[in-house]
Amino acid sequence: MNKVAVLGCGVVGKGIVEILTDNGAGIAKNLGEEVELKYVLEKRDCSGESFAEKVIDDINIILADEEVTIVCECIGGVGIAYEFIKKCLMAGKSVVTCNKHLVAEHGLELLAIAREKGVSFVFEASVGGGIPIIRPLTNCLAGNRVKEIFGIINGTTNYILTQMSQCGQSFAEALADAQRLGYAEADPTADVEGIDACRKICILADLSFGHNIPPAKVKTQGITAVEGIDSAFAASLGYAIKLLGHTICDDDGMVTTFVAPHFVPQSALLANVNGVMNAVVVRGDSVGECLFYGAGAGRYPTASAMVGDIMDCVRHSDGCRYIDWGEEREDKQADSDALPSRWYVRFEGCGHAAMAEKDGQKALITESMSAYALRESFGEDKILSAFRVLD
Amino acid sequence: MNKVAVLGCGVVGKGIVEILTDNGAGIAKNLGEEVELKYVLEKRDCSGESFAEKVIDDINIILADEEVTIVCECIGGVGIAYEFIKKCLMAGKSVVTCNKHLVAEHGLELLAIAREKGVSFVFEASVGGGIPIIRPLTNCLAGNRVKEIFGIINGTTNYILTQMSQCGQSFAEALADAQRLGYAEADPTADVEGIDACRKICILADLSFGHNIPPAKVKTQGITAVEGIDSAFAASLGYAIKLLGHTICDDDGMVTTFVAPHFVPQSALLANVNGVMNAVVVRGDSVGECLFYGAGAGRYPTASAMVGDIMDCVRHSDGCRYIDWGEEREDKQADSDALPSRWYVRFEGCGHAAMAEKDGQKALITESMSAYALRESFGEDKILSAFRVLD
Questions:
Q1: What local confidence, expressed as pLDDT, does residue B350 receive?
Q2: Mean pLDDT of chain A
Q3: Are A237 and A357 in contact (CB under 8 A)?
Q4: Hey, is the C-beta of A377 within 8 angstroms of any chain B C-beta?
Q5: Is B82 left (phi over 0), alpha (psi -120 to 50) or beta?
């Protein structure tokens, strides 16, 4: 029998414990064997919990217990979580995590240890929460050359942008609502500055293109520059503003990865993904365009993906064999400012004819050009805001 | 090395040959080993083709060749395809197919043979063409209790319904266009009567609920009863008409499966899936609602899914361990006419107040009720058309 240890029993950890308990029979039937929760590592007092007798506070008990074959990390961050995961893998245990920060920063190293030890290091929940995306991408679509991936991979910012466009709220009002509803942290920086989305698109790019893309190398623009008037212009021009993680691989294998608000045509499904929901579009040479949609966060959706990963670890006791990538290739990373696209530009008088005017301000959609050409064409000081148009 | 035989070299078979050739290096890198096409079984003259030297016309050559570990069936139908697949599995070869007719009718038997022989019988392309749906459902979402699946799983009928609603075409005009564009067969019965969608929803129900649902037991209504005026009422009431395969499992494990046109609220992503595109929604107890969207047919999308399956067979040389279901359970199948839902009803004078009127005809959306209650409430002879509303 496979025994599981859960590290950290906050929102997601508790969800895993619940699913393993409540759906235990179904899981056992599917796998042909039982999966038993043996330990919950947690320093806080859990004496009132149904799983109280399984709570321990020393990782060494887990490391030394050969019955524990699978460890679920729900601690978060890259400090103690990184240290514990590394130790667990070194001890020959498969590890499941939803920690995108850790996967984006240390995935390459941890995958190598897992490979060496013949165990799994899997992280379906690290991108898109409950949405199946990593396994479909690396398994079902593995016969494709992936050309492009873009998606709404941060629910907090999608909630804020939805409120701005549908309810006319300002950024500050929408953020305050998001915080009140528990969709945004007290310090919302990682979400609103695009840092969270950056980690996730890096993981998808790593997996699709085969070499490590460090988040620090990725141009990342959040949504703090999106003003109410941009939302209004978007609506009148037939678009919705969405913060997208975006990665493109050209025919020479050059990869351009960036995070930025995009003007998404209202006819695209992605423009209709609202509130805290997430969706990822994959463009492959054979499959064309696929979209994967669902809840990008939350206790049960995230735990759903992690329990799926636990089951995958059970099925592949010799280690998962399709999630992997190689060392960084600086020669394969392209500058996103050189990538041509059409742009939405809100500008002040500079000889360009406006396509729309509102409150004395002007906006237009350009022909396709690089960011460099855009700045040259308008003059950097004349551009009040500029966002890429998704084609 | 794993060697592959492709049975039948029509539209999809040729796509597989092309992908295996053109993406061979990428596939080998992903798998850590090469996949070589050894035979193409085809009776027609292929002398002008690049793979002409691999063409044979005797299945026994494939059956006797131990180097061939994986067979891709692209013949179609349940005659010779069934016979060949059975022989290949019995000979210890994994089989990949896109043949929904065969999987829905004979999947149970063929999976049992595969299990006994320790090989894979996989069919990702049988539902939703290139869209990853079977593996995400059975693997990533395996920790969930699936409660409901519904989707647009026939591109031909979705094209016709889209044309009717967006261009005001009649059913006959839209069908003629679909045939001219190659989206519909000369004999469109299997598509327009919902038979194709029925096979696909049965496969998803089999996989999700664990017992065989024979297509013959599933109430299946196609789109021939949808009239232009229903499309017009749908638009004015805020809906789109979509042909959905639909399966629901209640808390007691009773499964209701049916195929019928539905009124889908325009705010739902599914209402915005147009033309020949497909999309499937899965509702699970943990993950909530997920949607999977993409091309449901066509050479390369279908071949993309089948090459993904070939790669899965290579990775699981001891047989795929997560796609399976059991014998039919008549005691677990519920009558779809007893399933309550709201309904769109177009009717003639019977004491009900219309919510919309057009060309002297009346329509309304009911409260939730069974089909039996609906017929009793209106009088069967007063109902001109009635379609379920998706909630």
A1: 66
A2: 95
A3: no
A4: no
A5: alpha
Nearest CA in chain B to A27: B143
* Angle of CA points A258, A216, A304, to nearest 5°: 70
What are the tens digits of pLDDT across the range A97-134? 999 999 999 999 999 999 999 999 999 999 999 999 99
Q: Comparing C-alpha atoms, which of B374, B335, B312 is closest to residue B248?
A: B335
A217 among known catalytic residues: no
Q: Do the Cβ atoms of A242 and A182 come closer than 8 Å? A: no
Percent of chain B with pLDDT over 70: 100
Q: How much is the pLDDT for A320?
A: 75
B243 exposure class (CB count in 10 Å sphere: 0-12, 13-18, 19+): buried
**CB-based contact, A293 to chain B, within 8 Å:** yes
| CA distance, residue A109 to nearest chain B CA (Å) | 18
Contacts of A163 (CB under 8 A, 6+ apart): A169, A173, A174, A177, A178
The model's confidence at residue B373, banded by pLDDT at 50, 70 and 90, is very high
> Is residue A310 within 8 angstroms of chain B, CB to CB?
yes
Put simply, the answer to whether A135 touches B130 (Cβ < 8 Å) is no
- Say whether B143 and A27 touch across the interface (CB within 8 A): yes
Interface check for A217 against chain B (CB to CB < 8 A): the answer is no
For A169, residues 6+ apart whose C-beta sits below 8 A from its C-beta are: A163, A177, A228
Per-residue pLDDT averaged across A18-35, rounded?
93
Least confident of A310-314, A345-349, B187-191: A345-349
Residues of A in contact with B139 (CB under 8 A): 132, 135, 308, 311-312
Put simply, the answer to whether B139 touches A308 (Cβ < 8 Å) is yes
User: Cβ of B287 and A301 within 8 Å?
Assistant: yes
| Per-residue tokens: A344 | 């939405």
**Is the pLDDT score of A350 beyond 90?**
no
Q: Name residues 236-275 of chain A within 8 A of B (Cβ).
A: 267, 269, 272-273
Q: Give the C-alpha separation, B32 to B28, whole Å.
A: 6
AA letter at B55: V
Which residue in B140, B301, B304 is closest to A132 by CB distance?
A: B140
Check CB contact under 8 Å for B143 and A310.
Answer: yes
Distance CA A274, CA A153 (A): 12
User: Is A135–B131 a contact, with Cβ atoms under 8 angstroms apart?
Assistant: no
Task: Give the C-alpha separation, B37 to B51, whole Å.
Answer: 9
CB A68 within 8 A of CB A5: yes
- Of how many residues is chain A composed? 391
Alpha-carbon Rg for chain A in angstroms:
22
Of A131, A286, A308, the CB nearest to B304: A286
Put simply, the answer to whether B136 touches A141 (Cβ < 8 Å) is no
Give the integer Cα–Cα distance in Å for B175 and A37: 56
| Chain B residues closer than 8 Å to A141 by CB | 132, 304, 308
C-alpha B358, offset from chain centre? 35
Q: What is the pLDDT of residues A158-210, one digit of tens each?
A: 999 999 999 999 999 999 999 999 999 999 999 999 999 999 999 999 999 99
Instruction: Please name the residues in contact with B21: beta carbons below 8 A apart, sequence gap of 6 or more.
Output: B37, B50, B51
Locate A44 and state its tokens: 């806080």
Give how far Cα A283 sits from Cα of A130, B28, B135, B278, Å.
Answer: 21, 21, 19, 15
Q: Is the pTM of this model over 0.90?
A: yes
How far apart CA A364 and CA A360 sit, in angstroms, is 14
Identify the helix (H) or strand (E) that includes residue A1. Answer: none
SS3 A153: coil
Classify strands A2-7 and A35-41 as parallel, antiparallel or unpaired. Answer: parallel
In whole angstroms, give the CA distance from residue B190 to residue B198: 10
Q: In what order do the strands lie in the sheet with B2-7?
A: B55-56, B35-41, B2-7, B68-73, B94-97, B121-122
- Tokens representing A359 are 């409150």
